[in-house]
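thought: fold this chain, then report.
action: predict
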Amino acid sequence: MARPAHPVRLSPPTWLTAGLRPASAPIPWAAVLRAAVALSAPLAVGLAADRPAYGALVSMGALSGVIGDTADAYRMRIFNIAVPQLFGAIGVTLGTLVFGHGWLAVGALTLIALVSGMISSIGAVASVSGLLLLLNAVVGAGLPMPEPWWTAPLLLTLGGLFVLVLTLLGWPFRRAAPERAAVAATYRTVAALYEATGTPAYDERRQDVTASLNQAYDLVLARRARQHGRAPSLVRLLAQLNVVIPLVEAAPAAHLRAVLYGPLSPAVPAAVRELADAVEERRTGAPVLELPTPERPAEKAVDHALRHAVTVVHQAEPDLYDVGDRLGGPAALRVRARRTARAVLLSGASWRYGLRLALCIGLAQALVSLIAVPRSYWVALTVTFVMKPDFGSVFSRAVLRALGTAVGLVLAALVLAEVPRGWWDVPVMCLLAALIPAFSAKGYAFQTAAITPVILLLSDTLNQEGFDLVLPRLYDSLIGCGITLIAGYLLWPESWGTRVGDRLADSVADTAAYVACAFGGPPGDQSGRLRARRKLYRDLSTVRSEFQRALTEPPPTGPRAAAWWPLVVAVERIVDATTAARIRVHHGAPAPDPDEVAAVTRELRELADGLRRTDTLFAVRAELPGDEDGVLAPVRGEVRAARAIAGPDLR
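observation:
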């Protein structure tokens, strides 16, 4: 009897639809209100003064500020908004100077794109600065700006400063609130980590702790760079954050203990959550800590770390000059600037990305110079947004940009066709602007769909073309996406293994160095071990993010990333097992034999070397004899598991 035929389901691949699923992020209501006011108020002022074009330019600057306002701490938000506005003013000035100059404009924008792409590798603020430098240069070179030449950069900068003023309205009332909330959130993620010990959810909770620690240290140390030793509230936050580290270090040992002997007492995560509340509410005093009597080394480590954290968190008057940065503080601004400039100029990745962006912008400008394309600046704008200065997936962003633009153009068509120009623009802009932060939290395609009608409405205020703007914008967007896919993706055969595999190999080599440091370094070098461990976890977090972006690439990159993903997890587990072993030794367990340590580090270095020489994974049998009851037994097990996934090609 013949089996019934199953219907064939035709569905798009996961790597193509991943960006179309909205992220489960809460709506940032404060940012929604700020965007609505920042973009609609300048239009109202411009209409009242009978200068609607001026109001539109101020709103364009405000749009840039809204997009760049992504930080939590107020001091970081100043940099995130003010610094990119300076680059945006430079960009629109340069673009205005070459407006209408044909091939000179092509060459100028290509050079600006090279600089924009190179500086984008510095960090988040530089990424937005590079984006605005190129974005405003394209707008200035493609649209006639009011005379004299300084009018457009001044109005755009005013828009950004308006967003900055709205952002800083809460500063007098919430000076350290973002930093305090970040420290409290770190304690809560640690509490969730202890609740997950001995369960499959432990790895995911540990990743949450790493991300939370990164954010908290970035916020607190950014403020400490200027106020260390002078601001009691900040010194206290730094001390409270520092004492989280022993709790985090003890967690892998607690996890191993929970696997072997059963779950921890619920009093441990409850006490950590109580610490989070104390940090958030700024409570002091002498709380009563009721914990079970510790018996094993892991339990002693948790008990010791928790009692020390309770003492520091509830301390009323911290010593302003006795709070060291256990993980190292930021270097002087001059030193950081010199290091950054050297890294940008000498980095191969920086030059590759800059040349890639310059090629796409040059092709876009050359194309519209040879072929009559209405309002052709939109082609280069599309290229700029798709190849936004960061290291995400160019392919997926091009696809998502095209889809998001199409949806945004439908909304823009309704507005331009049904809403009369003039004062009606103000409430419409208020509504459309409010959608930008709300949709940006959901994903790139959603952000594009929200930004597109806003830019079209502002462009219509400058050009008065009405509904005739819609279809040319769709064509221009498709042309820009096509240029990016061909020149920015297909013609750059930058191997995935070089971009991500080498980074993973570096992390494996750093793991080998961490194992050697944990058991073979100077006995008193606790700070060195802490810094090595935190740097390693931060690097692994970056590698994980790069792999997750690679999963959205089309074959062969996406499937290859999926095949290598277990190795990323295996390396993280090796670091956890090493930390647990170190904690057990520190609290009374016998130290491992030096030959055992040397064998583990040798296997890890061989693994790192092998990852640099191959793009294909295959199993390698690792012989790691040693004391099966010793502290390194779990580490050896994790190393064997990693070697079973990949190793050097010895065939």
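thought: worth noting. Residues 225-230, 320-328 have pLDDT under 50 and may be disordered.
final: tokens above.
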